[in-house]
Design a protein that fits this description.
The protein has one domain: Roll (Nuclear Transport Factor 2, Chain: A). The two termini are 29 Å apart. The protein is an alpha+beta fold. Helix content is 24%, strand content 26%.
Length: 176
């Protein structure tokens, strides 16, 4: 069963061409927060990246980040604010980069985005003979809360909790 933060069984999708669309103000805030976080993440801007997270994790969930350990093909879980900072620093030191493929809001009544990535690159992946990176094998469920009208998230999940080892979500599918 997939935990909040990832959509188990998600498949790679083709990004459609430009279309006409309409979003509410809150949906626009969600998309802006996602894109802002990715810009900060890809610049290795710790303060900027942290600004998109709620000050504390959700009361029922101390997890702040989940990610793949691609060498061991398993999920790694980071807890609370110190864990989040540790995760971000590790990813920044590894020159990790995420390229957004698509974001979808299939239920405007809920503050949630489905997120898929077209490519992920890092020093680790290059050392593992993936010079162009990989195509992440799981979609992400990004749940938002609004503080003073600003969209923030408490968890950033790039892998599901409770997945078997080896985790198929951590497969090294080469990017084109």
């Amino acid at each position: 069963m997939a935990a909040t933060g990832a959509i188990a069984g998600a498949t790679r999708i083709q990004t459609p061409g430009p279309t006409t669309f309409s979003v509410t103000r809150l949906q626009a805030e969600e998309v802006a927060a996602l894109v802002g976080f990715l810009h900060a993440y890809n610049r290795a801007d710790l303060k900027g990246a942290l600004s998109y997270f709620t000050p504390k994790p959700a009361p029922q969930n101390r997890r702040t980040a989940t990610d793949c350990d691609y060498r061991r093909q398993k999920t790694v879980v980071y807890f609370d604010r110190p864990g989040l900072v540790q995760w971000l620093r590790k990813r920044f030191a590894d020159h990790d980069r995420l390229t957004l493929a698509r974001a979808a809001d299939d239920n405007p009544a809920q503050p949630v985005l489905g997120v898929w990535y077209a490519r992920r690159t890092s020093d680790t992946l290059r050392r593992m003979a993936r010079p162009r990176g990989i195509v992440p094998q799981v979609g992400q469920k990004l749940v938002f809360t609004f503080a003073s009208g600003t969209a923030k998230f408490s968890t950033f999940g790039l892998a599901s909790i409770g997945s078997p080892t080896p985790n198929p979500e951590c497969a090294l599918v080469p990017a084109p």
